[in-house]
Amino acid sequence: xxxxPLSLAVNGREHEFADRLVSYSGVQDxxxxxxxxxxxxxAVVGLGYVGLPxxxxxRSKHIEVTGIDASSSRLDAIxxxxxxxxxxxxxxLSSELESGGIRVTTDSALLGAAEAVVICVPTPVGADDTPExxxxxxxxxxxxxxxxxxxxxxxxxxxxxxxxxxxLLGPLRERGFEVGRDIHVxxxxxxxxxxxPDHRQQDTPRVVGGVTESCSKRAASVINCxxxxxxxxxxxxAAELTKLYENVFRAVTLAVANEFxxxxxxxxxxxxxxxxxxxxxxxxxxxGFPGPGVGGHCIPCDPYYLLWQLRDRGSRAPLLEQVxxxxxxxxxxxxxxxxxxxxxxxxxxxxxxVLLIGASYKVGVADLRESPALPILSGLVDAGIEVxxxxxxxxxxxxxxxxxLVSRQHPDEEKWDLVLIHTVHPGVDYDWVIDYPLVLDATYxxxxxxxxxxx
Length: 455
Ligand SMILES: NC(=O)c1ccc[n+]([C@@H]2O[C@H](COP(=O)([O-])OP(=O)(O)OC[C@H]3O[C@@H](n4cnc5c(N)ncnc54)[C@H](O)[C@@H]3O)[C@@H](O)[C@H]2O)c1
Fold this sequence. Notes:
Blueprint: E1 22-24, E2 41-45, H1 51-60, E3 64-68, H2 72-79, H3 87-99, E4 102-105, E5 116-119, H4 134-146, E6 152-155, H5 163-174, E7 184-187, E8 206-210, H6 213-223, E9 230-233, H7 236-266, H8 271-278, H9 302-312, H10 318-344, E10 353-357, H11 373-382, E11 386-390, E12 396-398, E13 404-406, E14 418-421, E15 439-441
Parallel strand pairs: 2-3, 2-5, 3-4, 5-6, 6-7, 8-9, 10-11, 10-14, 14-15
Antiparallel strand pairs: 1-9, 7-8, 12-13
């Protein structure tokens, strides 16, 4: 597709393969912004960080939406409006729940009423770094059980290449459906960035890979309701691997950014200054910012889906293995640096106190999943350090050993030996930190403290 701004570090040759990129062009209704082939009713299975905004996006195109979630407490939270959505989306959700344009339920039997089903359940990794597919398996069984002829089923959870075929085709065929004729099946990964208003779903292109060509087209017409640009690939596997490649690349970038920050410290240079300067090059450089580690269910988890699949086939990706090793041990580097700074500044008393600022892994969201703050706090405790944290978005948290911590409400009135900046949320008053003599800024961005120290 000539002219589409591809994000590739290839020195101006982005369009060498332009004719290989297949874009889907649905005809959109000018008034509703909806493709003319849009389904009248969609069901979204899994109403978490990604599924719920997707429900709202479909509804904003006047499509009837049924949201299905296995957790009744999640449904209660949704009905009470206690959810992580942009203010405008929260208002739309509330009014549509009232008018019936959106309904939410735990009852998978309602799946049968939808013309299209979007599966968006969690795909974390287990303790041994293998895919934890129980939620996805369960959801696929439910979807297949209630599927009906004419439906389009789109798996959107991130997973290994082959998941859509493995988990959906068998049960659908057992029910007598011929995929591509009676029912349409495709994969199209979510690319939503929860809590980031800069990337709206509508403006974020999606990739669709169907089991057959007609599956791709049907699924693209559904996905085209929530985004303006849809690209088609030749199979669900190509679409599945596309998503893993995206997040593998993010993992590599972040690991390199962290390593480069240490290079900068060694050379007494400012890593942010150097990163920004490198970023002025209009081609060939795609950098990231360093930080205390990587959190969420994407970057710390998704690459393991690929490593697991390769291992299973007797193959390997050694560079990626090394990157994931570096990412995993980053929180311990933070712990070692805290210990080092306490010693250097004569604060390594019997039981020094360290306050961590911002426990969630991401700015502006309450999400604690895989947050580096958890292993950092645990590591500090193991090192004989007394810990506390302050995060207005995370009132309490549990460390892996079961220890419960409560967010300090008035950290400015307490005395800590070192303040560790982990995540800085917008709209929170951090001015009191400026007076602290020992501040370790693991975000590299808190330059309000002139004497801050870096990792
Ligand atoms: N969060 C992100 O930033 C992000 C971005 C892009 C892609 N993804 C991917 O999207 C998928 C969903 O992630 P999320 O962050 O929304 O997860 P989440 O944990 O926030 O929410 C998932 C929801 O699914 C529900 N659920 C679990 N099993 C179910 C089942 N069998 N039937 C119905 N509901 C079920 C849970 O109760 C929960 O409410 C994952 O594969 C993730 O990797 C996430």
